[in-house]
Structure formats: C-alpha cells, structure tokens
Request: fold
Amino acid sequence: MADETIKSRGNALVKRARAVRDGKDERLVFVEGVRLCEDAARARLSIHEVFHTTIIERDARGAQLLFELRRGGGRLVAVSEDVLASISDTSTPQGIVALAERPPTGRDALIKDDETPLVVVLHRVGNPSNAGAMLRVVEASGATAAIATEGTTDLFSPKALRGAMGSTFRLPLWTGARFADALAWCASHGVETVSTDVRAARSHTQIDWTTPRAVILGAEGHGLSDAESVAADASIKIPMRPPVESLNVAVALAVVLYEAARQRERGER
Reply:
C-alpha cells in the first residue's frame, strides 16, 4: 500500500517530519496516532506525508485510515519501527504519523450568523496540555470559538493536539492575536468580554451568559494582570472553599462554560 519504504533515520523525509514535530515548519501540523489522524481526515485537512509501520496496514481500521489519508492527498511512506520511534513525540508510538497543512486560523471565521457567540480567549496560556484540554472543553460545552493571544503556546503542537483530542481541527480559531486586538474584535461584534479574577465581586453564576460573551483566562500561576482584567467589560470569580485558592486553568474554564451552557439551554439567567 505504501508509495515507498524507508529504513534510515537519516532520510530527508524523516528529518522533515522531525522538524515539523519540533515546530520548525509552521506551515505543517504533526499529527500522531490513529485517533488524531482519523480526526484530521474527517476535518479534510490537506495531507502531505503519512509515515506508518506495517502493523497499521494489517489492521482493518488502520487500512481504512490509510485509504482516507491517501484520498486526502497523503503520500504513504512505510517505515521501520525504529524509524517511526525517531519521529514519534510519544514514548509508545501507535504506528502512524501524518504531516498535514495547518488549517487557517483567523478572525474572519469566528462568528456564524446563526449562533450567539460564546468565545474563549486564551491569554498567554503556556502549558500545551492545558491549552489542548481547554479547546476540548470549548467544543464539549458548546462554546463557539477560541482566540489564542500572542505568547500562548502553539495550539497545533503535538502535546496540545493530544490534549484537545481532535477539537483543534473542528473549532473556529484565531491564533497569535494581540490582546488589544482580541478585545477590539469582541467590541466590534457586540461580544461583551468577561475576565476571570479571584477578587471579582460576582461569581460565574451571577452573570447572564445567554447574550454574546467572551471569557478571558490568563496564564497558569498568575492569571491576568490588573490592567488586563479591568479592560474587560465584566469580571467573575469561581467560589472556592479555603484553603484552596485556585483551579487548573482548564478546570476553571469547564466550570464557567458549563454554567454558560446550562443558562443557554434553559434560556435563563
């Protein structure tokens, strides 16, 4: 089934795959594992090379995946397990890695005419696993889009993609936005911004989430600065019993977004 077979770690295609894995070619996305490659195929990403071991060909699910990836333009490259291990970003490779074109991530696709926006702004979130988990929460809760500001980790890095479990390929995303530009975009589209701040007077349940909203979460550890929090239209906190002072940023986002989902499903405040 493969277009060619590679057994050398020094092969040019193998080196290219490692460069994409390490973020040295931002035009492409490093997609590893059966599940994520299936998500990439369903999202109709433009596929370049597909590196796989023979075990994938012998499995019915794997063979179907290779067919779909080739149909998406993929060049199938069989490699030895040793070569795939040199490409893989995990300690236990699943036998397949695809290089795909990075989907467009711009402000133009953030709002659809038939929806009430509920946008999440990731501001300087540095941990890729957290960022990926946040995107999974965005999709699972029914939020409509996400904005990642400058200084936020690459949402298409291997760790972030694994954390998102495919949500990255399906969500409208705007990456690399300046914080001020993200706020300006929200204002121009009638989307009121809500910052998360432990000192806020209102809790996340005391705000109307049925209107167009954007919730802003800052970096792990120190969150938003005073100036950034004040720049939003409103601020909220998540009540916590002492001595707990904070939640993981993805967990905090889930608490907020599921309250928003509850209100939106019932059409109530």
Q: What stands out?
A: The mean pLDDT is 94. The two ends are 56 Å apart (CA to CA).
